[in-house]
Write a structure and sequence with these properties.
The protein is α+β, with helices and mostly antiparallel strands. Helices cover 38% and strands 23% of the residues.
């Protein structure tokens, strides 16, 4: 049974040699670079050879909502032939140096139609991405701020950009941006979890010290 994911990596790694054999452009982005300029339509598909990025929306009020993270072996923003207006308000920024193989939509369309295994993986990847949003719809609507936080921390120990297990290399601001909560709420809930011996915190890093108790505070759809 698959768990909801905030970090996507390795889903297309088996196609690396195939991608290399197809028409493409190799590009490098540096930390802080936009992978698409704000407002630019998604007219390319990128396979991440190395590095990681964060994908988020930025409201006109200045609030940022982190949607997902993407690392080596991912294909982003995925392949489709629709023109969604919302995509022009989403931003993807490099968290480190990123090397990608870049395909135009027509180039990827040819691969999608030729390679049935790749096509199946694209569909399965989108199902995982949609599951992520379905989870959050339920997660955000009905649960308390502490349950939301515990769900996120548990999922991040399972799958996160740094691949460091019980050590979550994110700031409190990052966590607030993922959950759409205020820093004050996050600080309050983290303090409670710390006082209960469930985690410890240092600058830019959280360490889960009692995963079993953390899991007991999560909802069924997380577990």
């Amino acid at each position: 049974m698959l768990k909801p994911r905030y970090y996507f990596a390795d889903d297309f790694r088996i196609f690396y040699e195939y991608f290399l054999s197809q028409p493409h452009t190799e590009r490098t982005f540096h930390k802080g670079d936009y992978l698409w300029n704000p407002g630019q339509p998604y007219d390319r598909v990128q396979y991440y050879v190395s590095g990681a990025s964060v994908h988020f929306s930025e409201h006109e009020s200045g609030r940022r909502k982190i949607i997902s993270f993407h690392g080596p072996g991912t294909l982003f923003p995925g392949y489709h032939t629709n023109d969604f207006r919302i995509e022009q308000s989403l931003t993807t920024v490099a968290l480190s140096e990123i090397k990608v193989l870049e395909f135009t939509v027509p180039q990827f369309k040819a691969m999608f139609e030729e390679n049935t295994s790749l096509a199946e993986s694209v569909v399965n990847w989108y199902s995982m991405y949609v599951n992520r949003f379905l989870f959050e719809t339920i997660h955000q609507e009905f649960n308390s701020s502490q349950v939301k936080l515990c769900n996120l921390l548990y999922l991040l120990t399972m799958n996160q950009p740094s691949n460091s297990g019980l050590v979550i290399e994110m700031t409190q601001e990052d966590i607030a941006d993922i959950l759409g909560m205020s820093r004050v709420q996050i600080t309050r809930e983290l303090t409670d979890l710390r006082n209960r011996g469930i985690l410890s915190t240092t600058r830019g890093k959280l360490t889960v010290t009692d995963l079993t108790t953390l899991a007991s505070l999560c909802t069924d759809e997380t577990m």
